[in-house]
Design a protein that fits this description.
By secondary structure, the protein is of the alpha+beta class. Helix content is 31%, strand content 15%. The longest helix has 28 residues.
Length: 246
């Protein structure tokens, strides 16, 4: 009983002390060892510049800018190379007849008896030369001829435009099979050479390379039987040049 009485008195004493402390405004704050920061110091000196950083990724492309003004016209360029020779033009109209010439003087009578032997032998020699020249053209060179034209088969594969230019460099033009007789002559010429088709001209139209249907031009070939047909303007074939006898 005495112990309980002591405990009760002790609790009453503690309660009294608490009430006294609250009434007297006793501070209940708990002490701590926290150190408060001091005032801000002076700024330090600026340090040295660091090393350059790595190059960043390329950003997205920007919008298309406004078109700038046109620049000034530049100087004229150098003159280009001379192009191939053009096609032979059409024959012009016959001119007016000129005035009659002055009447010539009468010739003197000549006794040509002594020259007949010389002239006769000369005619024989001339005929021999003509036969030799004909043999050279027809057999050795393989040239065909008519009363107005010579025809030469060129065994070099070329495009129609290049063949036309090569014939012009030789002094002629690409052969024209304008008549049935000429076509037959050219066909026999081709057959004797062991060929089937060669390039010929197209009646005065220039042969151009490329697509014949687009350019409006056409390229022609002749067969060994004299038949004409259309040829590819990019194909390379043998060809026949023609030359005037004048």
């Amino acid at each position: 009983m005495a112990g309980q009485e002591f405990l009760r008195k002790t609790l009453l004493l503690l309660l009294f002390l608490v009430l006294y402390a609250v009434a007297s405004g006793f501070s209940m704050d708990v002490c701590s060892n926290t150190i408060l920061p001091g005032s801000k110091g002076d700024p330090g000196e600026v340090g040295d510049a660091g090393d350059e950083g790595r190059l960043g990724k390329t950003g997205p492309p920007g919008h298309t800018g406004v078109p700038g003004e046109n620049g000034e016209i530049g100087d004229a360029g150098r003159t280009g190379k001379t192009g191939p020779a053009g096609e032979r033009g059409e024959t012009g109209e016959r001119g007016n007849a000129g005035a009659s010439g002055i009447k010539g003087k009468a010739g003197s009578t000549c006794d040509c008896g002594r020259y007949r032997k010389v002239v006769g032998q000369m005619d024989i020699n001339v005929n021999k030369l003509k036969n030799a020249a004909k043999f050279l053209k027809n057999v050795i060179l393989g040239v065909k001829e008519t009363e107005q034209k010579f025809y030469l088969l060129v065994k070099e594969e070329r495009k129609p435009s290049d063949a036309q230019l090569n014939c012009r460099l030789r002094g002629g033009t690409l052969a024209l099979a304008g008549t049935e007789n000429i076509s037959t002559l050219l066909g026999s010429y081709i057959g004797e050479a062991g060929l089937t088709h060669v390039l010929v001209g197209t009646g005065g139209e220039p042969e151009h390379g490329g697509n014949a249907t687009v350019s409006g031009r056409r390229c022609t070939q002749v067969a060994s039987d004299g038949a004409l047909s259309r040829a590819e303007c990019d194909a390379m074939k043998f060809y026949i040049c023609e030359f005037s006898r004048n």
